[in-house]
Every structure is written in C-alpha cells, then in structure tokens.
C-alpha cells in the first residue's frame, strides 16, 4: 500500500466522523457513534493480530476488561486520575500480553484459540468473583474523566454524548493511523509475512516468535484502551466487558468487515454495533439475526464485506 | 474419605457429560477439521425437545428418541447449509460460522420453546444410592453408563465397520480417501448427524440432574472443547480421558478450594498442559513439512 492510499483511508474515516453528526436526529446517536468508534478501536487491534500476523485470539475481551477495570479501580483505590488509569491499564495489558504471549503463541490454530479463550475466561472470572474489589457481577461505577468540565471552564459547553463522540472518534483515527503506518513498516511487513507461511518467513531471517509476540502485545494495548474508553464514557462497567461473548463479538466484527483492512474492520464494528440498536423492536430475534449474519457473510463474502465490495467495484471499473 | 468419594462421584458424572460433548467435537473434527462450537447446542436441543415432547404427551423414551433424531437432522442441516458451502475457508472463518450457528440455534430455541429452566423425571427415580458413606443418584449411573456405551460403540464403529474405517480414512487424507472411492461428502454428513445425536443423548441423560434451558449450550461447548483439547484434539480416547479429568478437577476444586473458581482451575490446568504439551495429552506430534 503506497502512502497515498493510507491518507485516503484516513481522510475517508475522518470525513465520516466529522460529517455524520449533521444527520443525527437526536443526541442519542452520539452515544451510538461513540460506541462504534470504541469497538472499532479494539477491532483494529485484532486486524493487526489476525489480519497482519495471522494469529487468532478468542480472549481479547480479557484485555478490554483490564483496561475498563483499571479506569474503575485506579481512581478509587490508588487515587489516580482516570486518564492515568487508562495508561496504567494499557501498560498492565501490554506486560501481561508479553508474559503470556510467549508460551501461548507457540500454539497454532485451534490450540491457540482454546488457550486465548482460557485466558479471557480467567480474567472475566476474576472480575466476577472478586466482589470486594470489583463489585462482582453487578458492576462498578467509573469516575468521570473531568475533561468535559475543563472544556466548560474554557467556555465550550458540549453534552456528554458529543464529547465522547469526538474523543472516541479521535482515538479511532489515531488507532487507525498507527495501524496503517505499521502496515508498511518493516515490522508490519515482517508480521504479514507470517500470515503467508511461517516457514518461509523464518528462512528469510524473520524472528517468527518475536513478530507474533509484537502483534499480540500491540493488539492487547488496543483492546485495553478501547475497554478504558468504554468504561469512561458509560461511567459504569460490568464483567461482561471481559466475557467470552465480547471476545467473539470483537473477532466477528473484524472478520465481518474484512480482517486485513483497517477501514473494513471499522465497518464491521459499525454494523455489529448498530444491529442490536436496529433490532430493539424485535429484541427476541436479535440472536437469530446475528447468527444468520455471521454465517451468511462467512459463506458468501469470505474476505469480509469491504474487501469483497472493493474487489467487485474494481472489477467493474476495468 | 467419604467427602472425597462424594466429590469423585459428582466429578465423574459431570466429566461423563464433558466426555460426550468432547466425543462430539472429535468426530466432526476428524471428518472435516472443523471445531463445531455449536456442539453445546446439540446437548441443549436434546434436553429441550425431550421436555416439550414429553409435555405434549409422548412417553419419555419416545420423546427422547424423537429429540435425538431431530437433533441429528439439525446437525446434518448445519453441515449442508453452513459448513459444506464454506469448504476450504480459514480456521477463523470456520470458528465464526459455527459460533454463528450456535447463536442462531440458541435464538431459535428461545423463540420456539421459552427461557425457563426445565426438567423431566429421572429414569430410575430420585432416591440416592449409598456407596461406602457417599451417595450417588441413579441418574448419574445412567450418564456414566451412557458415556461408556457411546465410547465403546464408537470404538467398534471406527475399528470394526467399513463405514467407520471410511471416516478414519477421510480424516487421514481427504483426497486419498476420495481416490479409493470413499464418498467424503457422505462421511461429513454422517459425522455431523452422529455427533449431533451423541450431543442430544448427553442432553437427554443429564437434564434430570442439571436441568435444561435455551442457553446451557455455551458453557458445555467451552468445557467440551477444553476437554477435547486437553486430551488431544481428534482422539476419541483423549476426549474420554480429557472429559473425565476435567470433571474430576472441577469437583475437587469446588470441594476443597472454592466453588467460585472451579471453572477457573479447569482453564488454568488446560493452559498449563498446552504449555508443556502443545498437542494435548494424547495428541499426535506434528512436524511441518517444508
């Protein structure tokens, strides 16, 4: 991918984030938008792990849980500013990924899937069972970031929804920019070479284990920051954020939109975040529809939505 | 000592269910290299269909038979509609397809049946049997016996029948199996049907003890998957041993350490085993050809 395409993708994303609010009929849509951006951020992390390096994880919600609870517990117990707690969560997630990544990433395919799944379940179980610290399954409240009050003092009054729409949008753009930079960097190329063949990659001198570990740590930090932002904007968090279903949701979003593509992953996040909102009227059918969408996309658009559409458009143009 | 025996009884009962789910995973994995995350839903369907057929007036054995046959048909449909069209897709896609199928089946069950917990009467009454100071439910014996019968039945099927050998041949090398005239597509269909039937049987056997609801499948699938992995994916003996080991481990943890963390210890042990033996206890050592 040449530099021009990177900037086009970022420009498209930025334009969408900036223009969409003009079409919002009510303040509620800012909330949904912010949720899409936060999900998009964690899914971009998975693009690096699954799409670039070709490794799977069914436990990344565990890192989102660590980020989220860092923001809930840091200010309460350590007196940290919520913003610093976000960074602390990211550091803990990164270190943990570094620690468990080495043995876990030796595994392949389904074995890697069950190991990461086990990790995610352990984290969610800790968050659920340590009631004294985490508030247990009922969840825990999260202190406000305080940035909006600061803006108000500076004379800029915006609603919570608007603030978080902007903040998550910026976070998503930064995340996308970093991921797109990585794509063309020597590290990114090394990671992507694993996807094709690990044996071939190692014969040309790539340290396979090291690149896998890098992708794992980076994606863990993405998930952690996304979890923190989710906790901060909701002001409340439950252990569900680290649950198995959330991990599955994240992987599905990534693969649905197109796991090799940053923009596609964001599209996948948007669709799966919107689906339950659209289906609230038919709440009983939500699972039925979600399951059917997952199966149909994988069968008919195995590359994911965006790459498949892009290929079709290109085919017509030529 | 009594307590230990009691924990062993409950561990073996739960372990037998995990083993049945793990055997279901193993059969499909062998035939198609697919890990079917909807395996837990087969157990749920076995329980739920029996409950509702029984309530509708069918005698229990007939209701159970109907449940097993209906679930087998759903398994075959899953293969035909979702797995076969995606042949050759990468592991991530297959994982998403079968998880999608499990969500779909769960959603349908919630619509067609309901969200309540259900049970039907145990086959041989609810009076516990006393053994050396500990007690065991007659239904537990049904569960354990069921798992053993299925295991030996499968062993006979795979080693003594031509069809069973065809399944093994397909598992070993799909193209070679096709070359010697094995209908591999029929083998896939058979495997999904068989695996779904075994799952449903597990649901029928265990519902009087653990009750059934539309959402019991997720937990069972995770445990069964873990058990199959613990034993080494694709190995029926591994599925049996992995299932029983996992059940015992959980019962011991719940009994001696903490019932809250019984699920956690299972996953910790699995991680530890995978770190030391990346192919599971009975898994084949694989070397990559360059």
Report on the structure:
Chain A: It is a multi-pass membrane protein. Chain A: It is found in: Cell membrane. The complex is a heterodimer of chains A (318) and B (290). Chain A has one domain. Helices cover 76% and strands 1% of the residues of chain A. Chain A has 15 helices and two strands. Chain A has helices at 3-19, 28-52, 61-78, 82-104, 109-129, 131-134, 147-153, 160-184, 186-196, 198-203, 208-234, 244-257, 262-278, 286-300, 305-317, and strands at residues 140-141, 236-237. In chain A, strands 1-2 form a two-stranded antiparallel sheet. The two termini of chain A are 19 Å apart. Chain B is mostly helical and 290 residues long. Chain B has one domain (2-276): ABC transporter involved in vitamin B12 uptake, BtuC. In chain B, strand 1 and strand 2 form a beta hairpin. Chain B is globular and about 60 Å long. The relative contact order of chain B is 0.21. The model of chain B has no long low-confidence stretch (mean pLDDT 87).
Main attributes of the structure:
heterodimer; A: 318 residues; mainly alpha; two-stranded antiparallel sheet; 15 helices; globular; B: 290 residues; ABC transporter involved in vitamin B12 uptake, BtuC; 11 helices; Branched-chain amino acid ABC transporter permease (chain B); transport (chain B); membrane (chain B); ABC_transp_permease (chain B)
Task: Put the structure in a nutshell.
The complex is a heterodimer of chains A (about 325) and B (about 290). By secondary structure, chain A is mainly α. Chain A contains 15 helices and 2 strands.
In the CATH scheme, the class of chain B would be Mainly Alpha
The CATH topology of chain B corresponds to: ABC transporter involved in vitamin B12 uptake, BtuC
| Major sheet of chain A | 2 strands, antiparallel
Strand order, biggest sheet of chain A? 1-2
Counted beta strands of chain B: 2
Strand percentage of chain A = under 5%
Catalogue the unreliable spans of chain B. Answer: none
Tell me the domain tally of chain A: 1
């Amino acid at each position: 991918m040449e530099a021009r395409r990177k900037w086009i993708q970022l420009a498209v994303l930025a334009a969408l984030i900036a223009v969409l609010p003009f079409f919002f009929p009510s303040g509620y849509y800012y909330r949904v938008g912010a949720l899409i951006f936060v999900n998009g951020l964690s899914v971009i992390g998975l693009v690096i792990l699954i799409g670039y390096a070709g490794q799977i994880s069914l436990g990344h919600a565990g890192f989102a849980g660590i980020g989220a609870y860092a923001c809930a517990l840091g200010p309460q117990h350590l007196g940290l500013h919520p913003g610093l707690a976000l960074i602390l969560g990211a550091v803990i997630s990164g270190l943990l990924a570094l620690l468990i990544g080495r043995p876990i990433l030796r595994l392949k395919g389904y074995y890697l899937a069950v190991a990461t799944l086990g990790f995610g379940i352990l984290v969610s179980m800790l968050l659920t069972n340590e009631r004294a610290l985490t508030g247990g399954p009922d969840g825990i409240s999260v202190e406000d970031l305080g940035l909006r009050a600061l803006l108000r003092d500076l004379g800029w009054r915006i609603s919570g929804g608007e603030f978080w729409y902007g903040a998550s949008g910026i976070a998503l753009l930064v995340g996308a920019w970093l991921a797109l930079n990585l794509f063309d960097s020597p590290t990114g190329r090394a990671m992507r070479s694993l996807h094709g063949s690990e044996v071939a990659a190692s014969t040309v001198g790539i340290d396979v284990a090291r690149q896998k570990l890098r992708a794992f740590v980076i994606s863990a930090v993405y998930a952690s920051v996304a979890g923190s932002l989710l906790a901060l904007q909701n002001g409340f968090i439950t252990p569900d954020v680290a649950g198995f279903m959330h991990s599955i949701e994240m992987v599905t979003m990534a693969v649905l939109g197109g796991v090799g593509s940053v923009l596609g992953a964001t599209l996948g996040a948007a669709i799966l975040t919107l689906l339950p909102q659209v289906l609230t009227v038919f709440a009983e059918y939500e699972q039925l529809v979600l399951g059917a969408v997952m199966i149909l996309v994988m069968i008919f658009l195995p590359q994911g939505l965006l790459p498949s559409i892009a290929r079709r458009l290109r085919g017509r143009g030529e | 000592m009594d307590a230990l025996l009691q924990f062993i009884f409950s561990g073996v009962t739960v372990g037998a269910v995990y083993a049945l789910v793990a055997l279901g995973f193993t059969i499909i994995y062998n035939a198609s290299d697919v890990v079917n995350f909807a395996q837990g839903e087969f157990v749920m369907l076995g329980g739920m269909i029996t409950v509702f057929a029984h309530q509708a007036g069918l005698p229990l054995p007939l209701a159970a038979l109907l449940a097993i046959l209906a679930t087998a048909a759903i398994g075959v449909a899953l293969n035909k509609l979702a797995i076969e069209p995606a042949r050759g897709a990468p592991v991530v896609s297959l994982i998403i397809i079968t998880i999608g199928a499990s969500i779909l089946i769960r959603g349908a069950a919630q619509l067609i049946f309901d969200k309540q917990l259900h049970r039907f009467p145990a086959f041989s009454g609810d009076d516990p049997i006393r053994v050396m100071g500990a007690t065991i439910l007659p239904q537990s014996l049904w569960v354990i016996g069921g798992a053993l019968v299925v295991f030996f039945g499968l062993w006979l099927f795979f080693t003594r029948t031509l069809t069973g050998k065809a399944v093994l041949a397909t598992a070993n090398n799909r193209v070679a199996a096709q070359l010697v005239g094995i209908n591999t597509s029929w083998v896939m269909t058979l495997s999904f049907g068989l695996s779904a039937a075994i799952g449903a049987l597990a649901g029928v056997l265990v519902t009087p003890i653990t009750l059934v609801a539309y959402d019991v499948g997720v937990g069972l699938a995770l445990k069964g998957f873990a058990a199959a992995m613990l034993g080494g994916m694709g190995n029926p003996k591994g599925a049996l041993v992995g299932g029983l080991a996992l059940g015992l481990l959980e019962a011991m943890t719940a009994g001696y350490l903490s019932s809250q963390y019984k699920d956690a210890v299972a996953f910790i042990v699995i991680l530890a085993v995978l770190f030391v033996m990346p192919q599971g206890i009975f898994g084949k050592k694989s070397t990559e050809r360059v």
